[in-house]
Amino acid sequence: MGGTRCVFRDCPVSTQRNPKMHFFKLPVRDPVRLEAWLKNCGNADILNVAREKLSNRAICARHFRYECFMNYKMDRLVPNQIPTLARISKELAWDLGHLDENGEATMVKLSNPTLTHLIPPAGFECPLGFEEDTRFCRKYAARSRTPPRPLAMDANKRLKQEPVKRIELIELVEDDGEDDESVKATNAIIDVKEEDMPASGLPSLSDQIVEELQLKCDQLKADLDQLSAENVALKETVVKLEAQRQAHEVSASTSSAPAAQLSKAQLYNGIKRYLGPSMAALVRMEMFGGGERDWKDDERDFAMELLQLGEGVYNHCLDEWRFRLPSVRLTRSWLQNANSADNEDENL
After folding, report:
1. What angle do CA 206, 211, 215 make, to 5 degrees?
2. DSSP calls for 186-219
3. 108 DSSP assignment
4. Could you read off the pLDDT of 29-68 as tens digits, one per residue?
5. Which has the closest alpha carbon to 75: 120, 34, 40?
6. DSSP state for residue 69 in the 8-state scheme
7. What are 256-269's pLDDT values in tens digits?
8. How much is the pTM?
9. Residue in 70, 63, 64, 61 with CA at minimum distance from that of residue 115
């Protein structure tokens, strides 16, 4: 038949009989706490169970104090709890956590929980199942007239498992350093059963294990040689790059000498020989025009010729092309003076 049954001695609780009961599996991953659980459960038969099968065994919630639980449903334990109660009834239990001078459990009366998170709401049915198990008190009390004792844990029968000893094999690999030779250790951990240990205490390794270790050693040495070659190549590359950097700094320092700066006048005198009269006047106005500057004769002639093409053309050159020309008013006054002088010459 399937289901879970409590491993506590003389405890009749099971999932078939008490479907609302919560069970807690043995802490097989915590050897110290596991020994305490097995010791208090008082079931000598559990010591004959192999350790890998203990993970399927469990203890019901009746054997824990109220304060061991995280809520009133009693389905979660506070970490690192140990079952200490062998209940006789809902209110009475043998307490394996408090032993008398004879090493026997003491009788305690269990009080209702006072912590807020452990007080069940009204109408909540206790999951310990005392109400529905009407025969529990009578049968269990008949079996529990003698106070229970914690189970004596024999060192030879504590846990039925094959002892394992860990042997650490260290193989030395030389590392070629720049200054001193350093030694690195590669650790290989092998689990060896105690029955395979010879009288000398050292393991008798099979040829297959020795061959595998030798292959690993050869592979590590090959990797080390490859890394050493790559390290030498990288150092040579670093030296070349450093030399190129220094050469680049030297060339940059020599080529960054400041060139002779030309003034505007020198620049204009250098290019005006390639320009016509009107273009030379326009370039000079662009380079030196504006402000309170006195306008040259060829500049005046150029401005007056441009104004004679129309004020629209003149204003377009000023506004759109941004020529540094004299103002329209000033150029018009030059043009009027020039016309009046021509008229006087004709009258003469």
Report:
1. 150
2. EEEEEEEEGGG--TTSS----HHHHHHHHHHHHH
3. E
4. 998 999 999 999 988 888 888 888 888 899 999 999 999 9
5. 120
6. B
7. 555 568 888 888 88
8. 0.43
9. 70
